[in-house]
Design brief:
The protein has helices at residues 10-19, 21-24, 42-56, 103-119, 133-141, 177-182; strands spanning 2-4, 61-67, 70-81, 87-94, 123-128, 145-156, 159-169. The protein is an alpha+beta fold and 216 residues long. The radius of gyration is 16 Å and the shape is globular.
């Protein structure tokens, strides 16, 4: 299930990210607000406060991903643009121990359905590094379209990295993303093993690598 991100999640987030540091690092945006090493909870409390402030301003929707009541990851629909665009970007990560169980695509589907049918957004993007096959599998199995490469879009793991833009609009999923996926009407090629965030399309690289780091 998804639950709005709370300040009390700071300790669980710190412990989970520290335990998964090496697994998450290749896909994480390079900034100090969400450290991967095992530090105190203060940076995480500050980060969650900042995200919750954005949420109150209508700019993001941050959730904790829970499995059997335990914190196992985090997902954010962020960079929300209102007006004539009504668009946003989705980013997510999950504890390696819980990868490969269908939790990540379920979380993304729930977040996108909420964004479309409860909040009124029209378009959701997921921007994923080409090397991150498993995260690409998450969005393709949910029916996101490959819209091409965005050159050096984000600073990831110490350098500016290319990302593939995947997108979905509300008209494409009139019954919802989760229902379409569960009914088996979405399709996506098997692109590799599950990673921190979960990816095919014409940009498939020739071989799988471990391991999307998007905002969240």
């Amino acid at each position: 299930m998804l639950r709005p991100l709370r300040l009390r999640d700071a300790a669980a987030m710190r412990d989970t990210r520290a335990r998964n540091a090496e697994w998450l690092r290749p896909w994480e945006p390079t900034y100090p607000e969400m450290p991967l090493r095992n530090v105190g909870t203060i940076p995480y409390v500050a980060m969650i406060q900042a995200i919750r402030k954005e949420a109150r301003q209508g700019l993001s929707m941050p959730w904790s991903i829970l499995h059997e009541g335990s914190f196992v990851g985090q997902i954010t629909v962020g960079a929300i643009v209102w007006g004539s665009a009504r668009s946003a970007q989705v980013g997510y990560w999950i504890d390696r121990e819980y990868a490969g169980r269908g939790i990540t695509p379920t979380a993304v589907a729930l977040a996108v359905d909420h964004s479309f049918f409860r909040v009124g957004l029209h378009r959701i993007e997921a921007n994923v590094r080409p090397e991150n096959l498993a995260s690409r599998r998450v969005v393709t199995k949910l029916g996101f379209r490959d819209e091409g490469i965005r050159r050096r879009q984000l600073h990831i793991d110490g350098a500016w990295r290319d990302h593939i833009c995947y997108a979905l609009t509300v008209e494409e999923v009139p019954r919802g993303v989760l229902r379409r996926w569960k009914d088996g009407s979405s399709s996506g090629s098997a692109l590799g093993t599950q990673d921190p965030n979960g990816g095919g399309g014409p940009h498939d690289p020739g071989e799988s690598t471990p391991g999307h780091g998007v905002r969240g």
